Amino acid sequence: MLSGVAEPTWLANWSLGSRARVDSNTLAQAVYHSGRPARCDTNGNCNASVAAHIREAGVRSVVGVPVIIDGRVWGLAAAGAVDAGPMPADTEARIGGFADLVATAIVAGYRDQLTRQLEGEASRRPMMMDALLHGQILDQWSMWEVANDLRLPSQGPFVVVAATKVPGVREVALPEIESKLRSLDVYSAWRVLPDLQIGIVHVKSDQHLDKILALLSRSTTDRVGVSASFHDLRGTPQALHVAKIALRGRAHNASRVAVFDGSILATAAVSAPDVMVKSVATVLDGFGDLGEEERELLFETFRAWQDSDASVRGTAEKLICHPNTVRYRLRRIEQRTGRSLSRPRDIAELCLAFEVQRRLM
């Protein structure tokens, strides 16, 4: 920036936006390297292309002041005079005030631009999340664009998290969860709905998943459902489906965080919820006349027997009861379902029926 008294015709030839190379041994170089004001009282001592151009305008002395932004020299504010002799002693201070105004304007403009950019990103993120959650991303290129807008890697593994919002207690179910995960070097994107807070979380390894689950457990006051891992973001809708089922299913242990294991049995149980509930109803109707406590005792016994690889002794140890008690309960299950635990097909049907009952009923 140059101000001064000069020939109008010369100013027309060197208009706003003109460019010139900054050579060594110039006022601009002196200001840039020192970060301090500098003078060139006799332009004949400054042998450079810019100085020559200025001399053509009749400028005999120049004072330059740095424009400082973020502690670094961003540019130069300069003033020149056509009169012989040095410029007034207070010239640096006067130009310095103008340079400060320029720096303030540049910083304010940058902040405004950054704010608009962030606001634009913030307004796009909910739309991008909705597009993923509703399965509207079909091609690879669109998926990359969405991942970029959400600041997620384009490739997994990922998990979907669904957390219940408690009315009147918190605005969100998992406060500041995105920044907390980022402190663990975990990328995530979140969407807050009227009854749920939903997140897509990138999981680098099983160790990272353990840290994520521990953080979710510490952050929530209610149930949280977590899907099995998946690698393609286009699988988000199905992952959300199973995360919701894990969230609303029966608690398998004391933890508030329920993780869908992704096993064949579990996936089959939740793949078509309405169909599966109707299908297993005929198997479980035989328990309808029992009280809830007695019914749950039989169901718990079957699951323990299943987890113990059909070992009566292992089941008894897990339930802390006598093996004969386990045998008696298993016979009651056979009688009430019309299935035999000695026939593989019947066992498969019972395993699926009890899986559906645990997750969906």
Explain what you see.
With 361 residues, the protein is an alpha+beta fold. It has 3 domains: 2-111, 2-Layer Sandwich (Beta-Lactamase), CATH 3.30.450.40; 155-262, Alpha-Beta Plaits; 273-360, Arc Repressor Mutant, subunit A (Orthogonal Bundle). The chain contains 14 helices and 9 strands. It has helices at residues 8-13, 27-34, 49-56, 91-133, 140-149, 177-182, 206-219, 236-248, 264-270, 273-284, 292-307, 312-319, 323-337, 344-360; strands at 2-3, 38-40, 61-69, 72-81, 158-164, 188-192, 196-202, 224-226, 257-259. A 5-stranded mixed sheet has the order 6-7-5-8-9, with helices on both faces. β3 and β4 (72-81) form a beta hairpin. α9 crosses α14 (344-360). The longest helix is centred in the N-terminal third of the chain and has 43 residues, at 91-133. It is rod-shaped. The model is unreliable at 1-6 (pLDDT under 50).
Walk me through the topology.
Elements: E1 2-3, H1 8-13, H2 27-34, E2 38-40, H3 49-56, E3 61-69, E4 72-81, H4 91-133, H5 140-149, E5 158-164, H6 177-182, E6 188-192, E7 196-202, H7 206-219, E8 224-226, H8 236-248, E9 257-259, H9 264-270, H10 273-284, H11 292-307, H12 312-319, H13 323-337, H14 344-360
Parallel strand pairs: 1-4, 8-9
Antiparallel strand pairs: 2-3, 3-4, 5-7, 5-8, 6-7
Keywords:
single chain, 361 residues, alpha+beta, Beta-Lactamase, Alpha-Beta Plaits, Arc Repressor Mutant, subunit A, 4-stranded mixed beta sheet, 14 helices, rod-shaped
Unreliable spans are: 1-6
Distance between the terminal alpha carbons, to the nearest Å?
75 Å
- Spatial ordering of strands, largest sheet: 6-7-5-8-9
CATH topology of the largest domain: Beta-Lactamase
CATH-level-2 architecture of the largest domain: 2-Layer Sandwich
Given the C-alpha coordinates, what overall shape results?
A: rod-shaped
Structural class: alpha+beta
* Beta-strand residue fraction: 5-15%
What would you give as the CATH superfamily of the largest domain?
Answer: GAF domain
On the 0 to 100 scale, the average pLDDT is 80
CATH classification class of the largest domain:
Alpha Beta
The radius of gyration computed from the alpha-carbon positions, rounded to a whole number of angstroms, is 36 Å
